[in-house]
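From the methods appendix. Each design record in this collection lists the discretized structure first, followed by the designed amino acid sequence. Records were kept in a plain field format so they could be parsed without special tools. The example shown here is representative of the layout used throughout.

RECORD:
C-ALPHA CELLS (196 positions):
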C-alpha cells in the first residue's frame, strides 16, 4: 500500500489532511503530487518537486510538508498625545503564513507614562497585510492638597504629559496669608509645577 501524509511545517506538525492510503500491486507505477495552497510551497520526501513517481516494491509512505511563505504584517500603534489627538505609527514585521504574529506592547511607551491595550496575535494570512492595533493611552495622576487647616481644595487630575500649576489653587485660613505649595511636609521644596 502507498500512504501519503501531509503536514504544515510552520504550525508544529499540524496535519493538512487525513493520510491517504492507496492500494497498488507490486511493480505498479505511482505518482504523488502536492496541492497548490496559497501562501505555501511544499516538498515531497524532502525534495522541492511538483511530484514524485516511483514503482511499488513494498509498502511505502510519502511525506508532503507545506512551508509557509514569508509575508509582511504591521503593528499599528495609536498613541494619545497631550493635546488629546492621536498619533499613528506603523511598525513592519515579517512572518510565515500560518504562524502566529508576535506583537508586543512597546515597553518604552509604558515606561514613559502610557498604558496599552493587549495586542491580539493572529495567524498570518496568505494574502493581504495583517494589521494588529495597539492603543496607547496616557496614564492618569492625581494631585491632592494638604491645606494644613485651610479651606478644602478638591484633588486635581491630569494625564501623563500634563502640567499642573498648584498656584492656580489657593487655600484660605483665617489669620494667615497663603504663601504657596510645597512638595514635602517640611515645606522646603516649592511646588511650582507638577508634571508626570
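DESIGN:
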Amino acid at each position: 500500500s502507498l500512504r501519503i501524509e501531509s503536514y504544515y511545517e510552520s504550525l508544529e506538525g499540524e496535519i493538512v489532511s487525513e493520510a491517504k492510503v492507496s492500494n497498488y500491486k507490486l511493480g505498479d507505477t505511482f505518482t504523488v503530487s502536492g496541492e497548490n495552497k496559497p501562501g505555501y510551497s511544499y516538498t515531497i520526501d524532502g525534495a522541492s518537486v511538483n511530484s514524485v513517481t516511483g514503482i511499488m516494491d513494498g509498502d511505502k509512505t510519502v511525506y508532503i510538508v507545506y512551508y509557509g511563505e514569508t509575508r509582511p504584517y504591521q503593528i499599528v500603534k495609536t498613541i494619545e498625545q497631550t493635546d488629546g489627538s492621536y498619533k499613528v505609527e506603523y511598525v513592519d514585521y515579517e512572518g510565515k503564513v500560518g504562524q502566529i504574529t508576535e506583537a508586543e506592547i512597546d515597553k518604552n511607551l509604558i515606561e514613559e507614562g502610557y498604558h496599552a491595550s493587549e495586542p491580539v496575535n493572529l495567524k498570518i494570512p496568505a494574502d493581504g497585510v495583517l494589521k494588529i492595533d495597539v492603543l496607547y493611552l496616557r496614564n492618569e495622576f492625581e494631585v491632592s492638597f494638604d491645606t494644613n487647616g485651610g479651606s478644602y481644595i478638591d484633588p486635581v487630575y491630569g494625564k501623563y504629559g500634563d502640567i499642573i500649576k498648584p498656584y492656580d489653587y489657593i487655600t484660605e485660613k483665617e489669620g494667615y496669608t497663603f504663601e504657596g505649595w510645597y512638595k514635602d511636609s517640611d515645606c522646603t521644596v516649592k511646588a511650582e509645577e507638577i508634571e508626570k
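APPENDIX NOTE: Residues 148 and 173 are 9 Å apart (CA to CA).
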